[in-house]
């Protein structure tokens, strides 16, 4: 039990780092690069029985996506393979190899249906589409992720990425309720403050939305936004 508590505490320190450094990670693209660090830390600290495969995984010096993929091929069973593929995807993404990263994130979803890191893989797929300018695909994938895993720790960041894409694609009326929700639910955090700033900037640029902002309540599930 104490080991689990220590793991959880350390993991959330990384999430707090992401939140504190949000100005250097304003987009979903940068968030996934940081997510790779989060996952690396989490995998390193998993309190599980040491096996040859897990020892080999922890021995890989990052970034080295080829080594991770080779390890996944060498140990196809158990939980090491999907972890190795996910880390390879993160390394590809951090290097700007978005097509390769997207392929490996999708592989995690297709080849390892029972692994517990499917939300991270879905996020990776969406962020790769985002990074490659595939706006419509990225919007749909972010919305699908919110619908599939509404309580996951990544969802606040997913919402921010979705709102940003709505803004840049000329749909400020769809970004508005998401920023409202973020500002309310993330109040007191860097993410909440950023959402509030973006909300005020959005209203300044689109004063016609001010009346809607005053009378509407944030959409609790932006994936259902028409």
Describe this structure in words.
71% of the residues lie in helices and 0% in strands. The protein folds into two domains: 133 residues, Alpha Horseshoe (Serine Threonine Protein Phosphatase 5, Tetratricopeptide repeat); 89 residues, no CATH class. The protein has twelve helices and no strands. Helix 4 runs antiparallel to helix 5, helix 7 packs antiparallel against helix 8 and helix 9 packs antiparallel against helix 10. With 226 residues, the chain is mainly α.
Strand content: under 5%
- Share of residues in helices: over 70%
The profile of the biggest β sheet is:
none
* CA-based gyration radius: 19 Å
The tally of strands reads 0
Helix-strand pattern, N to C?
Answer: HHHHHHHHHHHH
**Do you know the CATH topology of the largest domain?**
Serine Threonine Protein Phosphatase 5, Tetratricopeptide repeat
- Classify the oligomer: single chain
Classify the secondary structure makeup into a structural class: mainly alpha
Shape: elongated
């Amino acid at each position: 039990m104490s080991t689990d508590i220590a793991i959880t505490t350390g993991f959330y320190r990384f999430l707090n780092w992401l939140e504190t450094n949000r100005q250097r990670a304003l987009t979903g693209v940068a968030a996934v690069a940081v997510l790779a660090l989060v996952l690396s830390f989490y995998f390193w600290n998993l309190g599980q029985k040491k096996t040859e495969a897990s020892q080999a995984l922890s021995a890989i010096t990052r970034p080295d996506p080829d080594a991770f993929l080779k390890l996944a091929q060498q140990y196809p069973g158990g939980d090491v393979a999907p972890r190795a593929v996910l880390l390879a995807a993160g390394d590809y993404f951090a290097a700007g190899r978005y097509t390769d990263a997207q392929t490996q994130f999708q592989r995690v979803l297709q080849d390892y249906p029972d692994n517990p890191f499917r939300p991270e893989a879905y996020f990776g797929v969406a962020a790769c589409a985002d990074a490659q300018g595939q706006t419509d695909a990225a919007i749909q994938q972010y919305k699908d992720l919110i619908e599939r895993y509404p309580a996951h720790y990544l969802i606040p960041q997913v919402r921010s990425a979705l709102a940003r894409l709505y803004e840049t694609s000329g749909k400020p009326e769809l970004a508005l309720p998401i920023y409202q929700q973020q500002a309310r639910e993330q109040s007191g955090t860097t993410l909440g403050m950023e959402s509030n700033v973006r909300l005020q900037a959005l209203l300044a640029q689109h004063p016609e939305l001010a009346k809607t902002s005053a009378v509407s309540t944030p959409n609790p599930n932006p994936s259902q936004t028409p």
